[in-house]
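Repro:
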Amino acid sequence: MHCFAHQLQLALVVISKDVREIWQLYSNLNVIINFLSASPKCYAELNSAQEIEIAHKVATGKLNIGRRCNQVCTLQRAGATRWSSHFVSVTRLIEIFEAASTVLENIIDNAIDFKVCLEADSAYNAMISFDFVFALHLL
């Protein structure tokens, strides 16, 4: 028998799948995460883009310097039973949104394989759509 908190998390996950906008958000989020995490090259480019973005923001004074600050983070897939994993997935993409969009743009511009270019373009278009960004920040 699950405790009440776990039952509540299970209910949130199930109910969120019944709301079309939320289901689309997590569907697009999974596509973006899967694409950016699929190959070591994409993963390395994402980390590099984050490092450049963090260095630029520190140099311009937009980020504070301190212990455990300004670390490169990774994207996390949403779990099937934990609402908290859905929340972490959303917040991580918000944190590295600019770096992720830069990597997707680079892949679109420089991809040799046409299929990879189309997948990156699809993920990028989903990522920059108003509905996606609005729902991302709403959650």
